[in-house]
Amino acid sequence: MCSRKGRLDLMNILILGATGRVGSQIVKHALHDGHHVTVLVRTSEKVQITNEKLTIIQGNVLNEDDIVRSIGGIDVVISALNTDGTTTLSESMPLIIKAIKTEGIQRIITIGTAGILQSRSTPQSMRYELRKSKGRSVRAAKEHHKVYAMLKQSTLEWTIVCPTYLPDGESIGKYRVDDDFLPEGGTEISVSDTAEFTFSQIKSSDYIKSRVGIAY
Description:
Layout: E1 12-16, H1 21-32, E2 36-41, E3 54-58, H2 64-71, E4 76-79, H3 88-103, E5 107-111, H4 136-153, E6 157-163, E7 176-179, H5 191-200, E8 210-215
Parallel strand pairs: 1-2, 1-4, 2-3, 4-5, 5-6, 6-8
Antiparallel strand pairs: 7-8
Helix pairs in contact: 1-5, 2-3, 3-4
């Protein structure tokens, strides 16, 4: 993929959720590879990186004007927004999709959760739908499920990366991935490897319009 400025392999990337555990590492990967990165954050002071190719826009993903002014000239959108017990994820996605379509962008990559992958034992159900407890993880999965439904109904080239338990730790660089399912027996995947795989999808067409389970 080429950027709109015609520079081979270099892109203008908008990263949402850039101050989170996964998002902040995706920013580092993108800058390391020489891409221009725009981040939309509520508190600019939380961005601990200084780089001439980094543009920081202070705003809110629930404000359509903020999204619009962040997305001009962008080639690909990566969303590492999390749920934090709120409905920000599902409320912001319609605004994001609208702005993407208006700008003529095709590619969006988001971070989901393994809960919205299909269950291996009961493939017609998602993993979270079979849980007996209805705690925080289920509430988060419901939010991600709404986003999945919106993206699925769109004409965008979307990919949802769905990690299981996310401990901190160094990148191992070796992990398993699977379309629509969590790799069998997978129990965890580090923040670092999740960020690395997610970033790699900007140049990959292997998982267009797909959920991708990722685990060791």
